[in-house]
Design brief:
elongated; seven-stranded mixed beta sheet; Trna Endonuclease, Chain: A, domain 1; 26 strands; single chain
C-alpha cells in the first residue's frame, strides 16, 4: 500500500527534474547517471549540460502530483484540470512542441507522471497534440484499501496493468518499432535482433542473459500462434551469439561451416549481443541491407536501471502480479525471474487438473471437452471452473454451450456459435491458448468479437505466458471489450487476474479493421496511388504480341504464387527496345494487372548531389518495396544508373551505386518482390545486373507494326473526344486510318526509319491543333466539335518525325537474339523488311 503522503520516485535517464534550491525552479532533463551524480541537460539554456547531485533536484512529475494532492494551482501557464493542451504539458517538461513533436516525447512524459502516481486523460479521447488533458491521482494514492472481514473469504480476483514501457522498449528497442517486433515474432521470416550492450559491466552482466532468455521464450510462444497441431513445419530455431557470427555471415569460410552461424531460413530468431563501437563489423550496414527478414536493434547503451519493467512482467507471467506493488522488484534478479517464471507458469498450467475430481463431485457437467482441444485448454477450463465455484458455489456451469436463434415461425433453428463456458449472471467465457489462432486480425474478429453477444458479459481467458508477446494486443482487446468484458489471466492459487485495458497507439493499431493494411512511415516520400488509376494491359493500345508475352511469362506466374512456390525464378523484369515505344506504360500495366502499389523511378530518384547519396537513395527505395507485399518498383532508364563498371570514365561513386543496386536486387529477389527495369541500350548495362537471377525475364518492345499503329492512332483520337476539356471531335474511322497509314509504313520499311508510339501520338496532337485553329482562329468559348480531317492527319504523319532509326533496329534485334532467342528475333525482323511495292 502506497503512502498517500509520500511517493518515492526513482530518477531515470530521460526524466525531467526541477532544481529545488535555485530561484525560479529551472528544469533539466537527465541524460546520464553515475551513482548519486546526475548529468542534466538544460533545454531553456541552449541545452547546456550540468552535473548536479541527486539531492539537489526533484522529479517534476512529483511537483505536479503534490499540486493535485493538495488541490492547489500548479502554475499560471499550465492547467491540470482541462484548460491546457498535451503540447503545453510536453513543453513544461522541456521537450519540443512543434508539428513534428514525437509521440515518444509525450509517452515519456506520461510514463513519468504515472510513476509519480498520476493518470493523464485527454478530454477528447484522442492523444492529439492540441487535445486538452486532465491529471488525476491514482486510486491507490487516495483510497485506502477496505478492511477485509476475517470471516469472509477474499475475492479471488485482481487487476493489473502491463508495465510501461513494455519489455522490448525497456530493453532498448525504439518504441515505434515495438508493435512491428511483436508481430514479427509470429511471422515466418527470419529475424535478426542486435543488442548493443552498455559500457557498465554490472548492467551488461544481467542485461544480456535476460534479453536472450525473454526473447527466446517469447519467440517460441509466439510461433505457436500461427502453428497448428498437425503442421509438419520445422520447429522454430533460436540462435544466440556475438559479433563473430555477423562476420561469419558476411564472409563465410569453410572453417566456419560446421560451427555456429546465423540462420536465415524461415522460422529462425538470431540474437546477437555486441558493443557498438568495438564489436560491430565495418560493413554491418551491408548485412542489414541483405538480411532476408526484419532487423531489430536494441540500443541498451543508455540503460542503467535494474530492469524493473521486465521484472514486473515476469512476476505477472509467473502468477504473482501483487508483488509488483510491493517494494521487491528492485531486490530481485531479472535473470533469476526468467527461470522462475518459466517454471511457475508451467506448473500453474497443470495445477487445476489436480483438483478436477473435486469439481466433478460438486457440480454435474453434461459436457466438458470440445473437439480438438489441447491439454492446456482443458487445464485452463478446469481452473476457470474452480475459480467460478469459489466465488459462487451454486453457479451452474455450462461447458460447450450452444447458442441458437429462431430462423422462422416453424421453429427451425440453426446453431450460431458455441462458447467454452457459459454461467448465468456471469456471462460467457472463451478459453484461448493462442495456438494456431493467427494472424492477429483473424484472432480479434473470429475468436473475440464475432462470439460476443450484445448486452452480455464476455471474458477472454488466456495462459499467462501469452503476456510476453501478445500483452499489448490483449490489453487492446480489453479496451475494445469495454466495461462488460475482461481479459483474464491465471495467477497464484485459484485466482484469476484481469488485465487493465490500454489501446494500441493510433499508428500501430492495425488490428481494428481486418481489411486495413498496416503501413509504416517510409523515410522517403510515399505518394499514394489508387489501384484503379493504374493502367491494365487492356488499356494499352497496340502491342498485342508484347502484351501476350507479359500475360504468359509475368502475370500468370505471379498470380499463381502458391503453385510455383518452389520454382526458382528471378523477380526482375527488363523491358528493352527503341525509345518512345511504351516500355514504361507496359511496366505500370503489370502493377495494374497484379493490383500492386508501384513507384516509377527516374535516374534522378536514385542519384544525389553528394558522394554516397546514391547508395542511400537506392537503399531507401528498396526498403519501401520490401516492407510489404503487393509492392513493386519500375526503374526507368536503368542504363543511366546501372551502366557497365568496365567503362573507363566511370567515377568510383557511380560504381558504388551499381554495387548497392546489385545488393538490393538480390534482397528484393529473395522476398519475391517485382522489380521492373526499362532501357533503350541493353548492351550498356553492367553484366552483373542483367545476369540470370536478377533480371531473369526479358521483354523486347519493338516499334508498332501497321495493325498496332492503326489501333494506337484510333486510341488517341478517341481520347480527344472524351477529354473533359475538349468540346468534342469528329475524327476519321479505323478504315480511313488504315488506308492512310499503309503507304507510309511501306515507305518506312524501304527507308528503314520507323514510327514509335510517341511519334503517332505527336502526329494526332499536331493534326488536332491545326484543325482547331483553322475552324476557330480566335479563342472563343462554347464552340462546336472540332472536325479532324484525314488530310490534316496525313500531313502531320508525313511531316512528323520517325524516331526509330535503322541503327536502333539492328541493335534491338541483336539484343533480342542474345537474350530472347533467334526465333523471336527473326519474327520481329520481318516487320522491318519491305513487304511490297513502294507507292
Amino acid at each position: 500500500m502506497l503512502d498517500p503522503g509520500r511517493v518515492v520516485m526513482k530518477v531515470m535517464i530521460g526524466d525531467t527534474v526541477v532544481f529545488k534550491h535555485q530561484s525560479g525552479s529551472p528544469i533539466g532533463i537527465v541524460t546520464r547517471r553515475s551513482g548519486a551524480t546526475l548529468t542534466v541537460r538544460l533545454p531553456l539554456q541552449d541545452n547546456a549540460l550540468e552535473r548536479v547531485s541527486r539531492a539537489d533536484v526533484e522529479p517534476l512529475a512529483l511537483w505536479l502530483a503534490d499540486a493535485r494532492r493538495r488541490q492547489t494551482k500548479f502554475s499560471n501557464t499550465l492547467s491540470l484540470v482541462g484548460q491546457s493542451s498535451l503540447s503545453e504539458l510536453v513543453k513544461t517538461f522541456g521537450y519540443s512542441t512543434d508539428v513534428k513533436m514525437q509521440r515518444s516525447s509525450l509517452g515519456n512524459v506520461v510514463r513519468q507522471l504515472e510513476r509519480a502516481g498520476l493518470d493523464v486523460t485527454p478530454t477528447t479521447g484522442s492523444w492529439d497534440r492540441h487535445a486538452p488533458f486532465v491529471l488525476a491521482l491514482k486510486k491507490a494514492l487516495i483510497d485506502p484499501a477496505p478492511d477485509v472481514d476475517k470471516d469472509e473469504a477474499p475475492e479471488p480476483s485482481r487487476s493489473f496493468a502491463l508495465p510501461q514501457p513494455f519489455w522490448p522498449s525497456a530493453l532498448g528497442l525504439s518504441q515505434d518499432r515495438e508493435v512491428a517486433f511483436l508481430r514479427a515474432l509470429t511471422g515466418s521470416e527470419p529475424i535478426l535482433s542486435l543488442l548493443y550492450l552498455p559500457e557498465r559491466r554490472d548492467t551488461a552482466d544481467w542485461l544480456q542473459p535476460t534479453w536472450e532468455g525473454v526473447m527466446g521464450w517469447a519467440y517460441r510462444c509466439a510461433q505457436r500462434f500461427v502453428r497448428t497441431g498437425g503442421s509438419e513445419r520445422a520447429a522454430p530455431q533460436v540462435v544466440r551469439g556475438s559479433s563473430p557470427l555477423l562476420h561469419g555471415y558476411l564472409k563465410p569460410s569453410v572453417l566456419g561451416s560446421d560451427g555456429p552461424r546465423l540462420h536465415d531460413a524461415p522460422h529462425a530468431l538470431n540474437l546477437i549481443s555486441l558493443r557498438r563501437d568495438t564489436d560491430a563489423p565495418v560493413d554491418l550496414s551491408r548485412l542489414l541491407a541483405t538480411w532476408p527478414g526484419p532487423v531489430f536493434e536494441f540500443d541498451a547503451t543508455a540503460i542503467s536501471g535494474d530492469g524493473a519493467p521486465v521484472s514486473r512482467l515476469l512476476l505477472m507471467v509467473g502468477g504473482k502480479p501483487e508483488l509488483e506493488k510491493q517494494d521487491v522488484v528492485s531486490q530481485l534478479s531479472p535473470l533469476k525471474l526468467v527461470l522462475w517464471s518459466r517454471e511457475a507458469s508451467a506448473q500453474g498450467a497443470a495445477q487445476a487438473l489436480n483438483s478436477w475430481g473435486d469439481i466433478l463431485t460438486r457440480t454435474p457437467l453434461s459436457r466438458f471437452k470440445g473437439s480438438n482441444e489441447s491439454s492446456t485448454t482443458l487445464s485452463l477450463k478446469a481452473r476457470l471452473a474452480q475459480w467460478i465455484l469459489s466465488r459462487n458455489p451454486q453457479a451452474s456451469l455450462q461447458f460447450e454451450h450452444h447458442r441458437t436463434e429462431v430462423l422462422d415461425d416453424e421453429g427451425s433453428t440453426q446453431e450460431v456459435t458455441r462458447t467454452d463456458l457459459h454461467v448465468e449472471e456471469m456471462g460467457t467465457f472463451e478459453v484461448e491458448t493462442l495456438v494456431g489462432s493467427g494472424p492477429m486480425e483473424s484472432f480479434y474478429h473470429r475468436k473475440i468479437f464475432s462470439r460476443r453477444k450484445p448486452d452480455e458479459p464476455f471474458s477472454l481467458v488466456v495462459p499467462s505466458e501469452t503476456l510476453l508477446w501478445a500483452g499489448p494486443f490483449l490489453a487492446d482487446i480489453a479496451h475494445h471489450l469495454g466495461e462488460g468484458g475482461a481479459v483474464l489471466v491465471p495467477v497464484a492459487g485459484a485466482a484469476f487476474a484481469s488485465l487493465e485495458s490500454r489501446s494500441l497507439e493510433e499508428n500501430a493499431s492495425e488490428v481494428k479493421d481486418p481489411e486495413e493494411e498496416a503501413r509504416r512511415e517510409s523515410p522517403v516520400e510515399t505518394p499514394e496511388r489508387r489501384e484503379d488509376s493504374l493502367p491494365r494491359l487492356d488499356d494499352v493500345a497496340g502491342y498485342a504480341s508484347v502484351k501476350e508475352r507479359i500475360q504468359r511469362d509475368i502475370v500468370w506466374p505471379e498470380q499463381r504464387g502458391a503453385l510455383l512456390r518452389n520454382v526458382s525464378r528471378a523477380s526482375g523484369i527488363l523491358f528493352f527496345g527503341p525509345p518512345g515505344c511504351g516500355k514504361s506504360l507496359l511496366a505500370r500495366a503489370i502493377a495494374g494487372e497484379l493490383e500492386q502499389e508501384v513507384r516509377l523511378l527516374s535516374p534522378s530518384d536514385l542519384r544525389g548531389p553528394y558522394v554516397g547519396w546514391g547508395q542511400i537513395m537506392i537503399r531507401e527505395q528498396f526498403d519501401w518495396v520490401v516492407e510489404q507485399e503487393k509492392r513493386m518498383l519500375v526503374l526507368d532508364e536503368l542504363d543511366a544508373v546501372a551502366r557497365s563498371r568496365r567503362s573507363g570514365n566511370m567515377h568510383s561513386d557511380e560504381k558504388a551505386d551499381v554495387n548497392e543496386l546489385l545488393v538490393q536486387l538480390d534482397r528484393a529477389g529473395r522476398l519475391r518482390r517485382i522489380i521492373v527495369g526499362t532501357t533503350n541500350f541493353l548492351g550498356a548495362l553492367d553484366e552483373a545486373v542483367i545476369r540470370s537471377g536478377r533480371f531473369g525475364r526479358y521483354v523486347p518492345v519493338p516499334p508498332p507494326d501497321l495493325g498496332e499503329a492503326v489501333e494506337i492512332v484510333s486510341y488517341y483520337l478517341q481520347r480527344l473526344g472524351r477529354a473533359e476539356s475538349s468540346v468534342g471531335v469528329n475524327a476519321p474511322d479505323t478504315a480511313e486510318i488504315h488506308t492512310l497509314l499503309a503507304p507510309l509504313f511501306l515507305a518506312n520499311q524501304v527507308n528503314q526509319s520507323f514510327f514509335s508510339g510517341s511519334d503517332l501520338e505527336a502526329a494526332v496532337t499536331e493534326s488536332y491543333l491545326r484543325c482547331a485553329q483553322a475552324e476557330d482562329p480566335t479563342p472563343v468559348s462554347g464552340g462546336g466539335p472540332v472536325r479532324l480531317t484525314v488530310e490534316a492527319l496525313a500531313v502531320a504523319l508525313e511531316e512528323g518525325p520517325r524516331s526509330v532509326s535503322a541503327a536502333s533496329i539492328r541493335r534491338f534485334l541483336t539484343e533480342t537474339r542474345r537474350h530472347c532467342g533467334s526465333r523471336l528475333a527473326d519474327s520481329l525482323a520481318r516487320r522491318f523488311q519491305p513487304q511490297g511495292p513502294t507507292p
